[in-house]
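WARN  no MSA supplied for this record, continuing single-sequence
INFO  ligand: magnesium ion
INFO  echoing inputs
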Amino acid sequence: KFEAYIFDLDGVLVDTAIYHYEAWKELADKLGIAITIAQNEKLKGISRIDSLKKILAWGNVTIESEKELKRLADIKNNIYVNRIEHINEEEVLPGALDFLKQAKAKHIKIALGSASRNAKLILQKTQLAQYFDYVVDGNMTQLSKPNPEVFQIAQKALGVTADKCIVFEDALAGIQAAKAANMRTVGISDNNTLLEEADLVFTDLTNITPAFLDKKLLA
Ligand code: B16
Ligand code: MG
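INFO  complex generated
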């Protein structure tokens, strides 16, 4: 049986991806760069500073100064933090709360593995913090997904081996990070972007049970 579940936050447990997109779009507009929905997919799971660098590259804008990069990243984050100021339990994605409760009842260890520096704030606002044995957020990692660091920190803190972990992710970079950590993967996606990479793909966490995952992934 699997002993630990490691969840991504944005796009798996909470519906905050739209606020990231809106905030990046607002900053990009100011810089005269248009970002498409397809480009936005490539920002999912990517750290704030790396997301900014990608957007600048798409717009052929060169900024060398670290200070200016930080200023722009701060502008985006201020817009984002404003957007999420009033979020609550309603932002929790379908099936997520019930699945966390099922995992807890089965004594499966639960960690967060998020690239977001705002993860703890979001867990509090959505009342999800109580379900987690350990939380890894973007303040605790040096390397962005697809690097496996974020999930390996969670694994070590939970005291389990990688083959006993399932990672739940909505981003390609996150699935790649989990695979690099030798963990099994459940993709959460309403399009086909994760189908070729993840072990299993669902549109959300509705109707999934721990017993079903053991059966499918241990076969
Ligand atoms: P912040 P996740 C990621 O969260 C988001 O998917 C990504 O869009 C965002 O840029 C990143 O967190 C950093 O977030 O600016 O709040 O530190 O999907 O890994 O939970
Ligand atoms: Mg995500």
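Residues 66-83 form the longest helix (18 residues).
INFO  checksum written, moving to next record
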